[in-house]
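Why do we care about 3D structure at all? Because function follows from shape, and shape follows, mostly, from sequence. That is the central idea of this module. The next example makes it concrete: a single protein chain, its amino acid sequence, and then its structure expressed as tokens.
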Amino acid sequence: MNNTDHHSLWEEYCADKGMSAPCPPSDQFGDTPELADELVALVLREQKQATCELKTWFDSRGLPLPAIGDQWIIMDGSGTERCIIETIQVDLCPVRQVDAAFAWDEGEGDRSLAFWKDAHDAYYKRQAKRDGFIYSDDMICVCERFKLIWPTKISK
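And the structure:
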């Protein structure tokens, strides 16, 4: 995850809430600018309320797994901060055991489990090629559900 030098979105959020807190990490969904733009738009419409990453991604980078209450800033494909989300649930399971309810909450494509499996298998295979591992749907994935906390007034 990236920590950028510009955290105006976080400062706006803190000012609105009358609080002061360290800025959380920032990152993008997806592995291309176009996918990042598409996915952040789904978050802003509150259609995308979940995300999934292989546990090996966290392990290989020395990062802790997400935890309930974690907040992070989501950026679009150009690196512009667009929203803040908060983790509300984290589950670990083999990729092949992700269910239709999670696929629906992830909000992508037609929201079906079949679409989810096709899209994520392709994504994880690209990731495996980049990171030098062999992908299998037996690998453990981190299924994270979240809520949009800022901005709170989005025209749908």
